[in-house]
Design brief:
This protein has 228 residues and is mainly alpha-helical. Helices cover 79% and strands 0% of the residues. Helix 1 (3-37) runs antiparallel to helix 4, helix 4 (108-140) packs antiparallel against helix 5 and helix 5 (143-165) packs across helix 8 (196-223).
Length: 228
């Protein structure tokens, strides 16, 4: 292994350690809140955090596979679908602020901090995996096409957050109940009977897109490259 390769591995390891530490902080805050409130309320935040890790796992596995194989091979396609299917879970935790005030708690301010910790962890994990895929797209396609693909992905994520929060669909429901998901997706779009579909989707898209633009430009400036 070359010196450059060793440095790259060390950098990746440091990023994973930092992401792991961030997740542990969120879990630690939850544990303290559960102890002070004598309640396991919000236990599902930990499950949501686990789901937020999956896109990064799929993205990293895909990138390793693409070093020796084409993106259009069936293994790469499966990994890409899994990554895209679970990516919205990373951003879904932004919507968990809706739970504030649902039950009586000891310290509402602390709950804000705790939920923010999970939301930021989810965002960091999601944007990390998105950045990895973005780089791979740029290596293989024109820059503008790669950027447009990311725009489309973020728009889909905004819509997926709406499906999860408002219609209560999960990623695996696409396989378990595809007809139900398709019906709920198509009905409000065709009839335009529910304006929340568009406002929520575009709202999350604007938020995620603006944050990722900053992340992309910041990392790009540090890398000192005009293409990555």
């Amino acid at each position: 292994m070359s010196i450059m390769s060793k440095e790259r591995v060390a950098q990746h390891a440091n990023v994973l350690i930092a992401l792991g530490f961030e997740s542990l902080v969120a879990i630690g805050l939850y544990a303290y809140g559960a102890w002070t409130n004598h309640s396991w309320q919000y236990w599902y935040f930990i499950w949501n955090l686990f789901l937020a890790w999956l896109p990064l796992v799929f993205a990293y596995t895909l990138i390793q596979y693409l070093k020796k194989h084409l993106w259009f091979s069936w293994q790469a396609v499966v990994l890409s679908v899994l990554w895209l299917g679970f990516l919205p879970n990373s951003f879904y935790m932004l919507s968990d602020f809706i739970h504030l005030g649902n039950v009586v708690r000891v310290d509402l301010d602390f709950d804000v901090i705790m939920i923010a910790a999970f939301a930021v962890a989810g965002l960091t994990l999601g944007f990390s995996s998105l950045y990895l895929i973005h780089r791979e797209l740029i290596k293989r396609f024109a820059v503008i096409r790669a950027h447009m693909a990311i725009v489309a992905i973020l728009l889909l994520c905004g819509f997926a957050v709406y499906l999860g929060r408002d219609l209560r669909w999960n990623t695996w429901d696409i396989l378990v109940n595809p007809a139900g998901v398709l019906f709920d997706v198509a009905t409000p779009i065709i009839s335009s009977s529910n304006p929340e579909v568009f406002s929520t989707t575009l709202g999350y898209f604007a938020l995620l897109g603006s944050i990722y633009t900053v992340v992309w430009q910041f990392v790009r400036s540090i890398a000192g490259s005009a293409r990555i």
